[in-house]
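Dear colleague,

Thank you for sharing your sequence with our group. We've completed the structure prediction you requested, and as agreed, I am returning the results in plain text so they can be pasted directly into your records. Please verify that the sequence below matches your submission; if there's any discrepancy, let me know and we will rerun it promptly.
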Amino acid sequence: MLSFFKRKKAKKFGEIAVSRGFVTEKDMRDALLAQAEYLEKHKVQKEIGAILSEKGVLSPHDLKAIIDEQSKGPSGPIAWFTALFGLSR
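Please find the predicted structure tokens below.
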């Protein structure tokens, strides 16, 4: 891809959750630790949102709001270009 087209990086789930006040940084550290332990034990990565929901830290509404923000596509003058050529973030 041409270097002058800078793509917007997708925000990480945890960054959004903390910045919007849905969880604390400690909640995220605990969830990341639980995720690593789950991966080691089951050899499958469990999503952070699922872990936080199961612990009762995130409500289904909060989870949806974070996922919606995370999945927003690019906007602005080059959005049409990105969509036209199927460029992802």
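Summary note from our side: The chain has one domain: 13-84.

Kind regards,
the structure core
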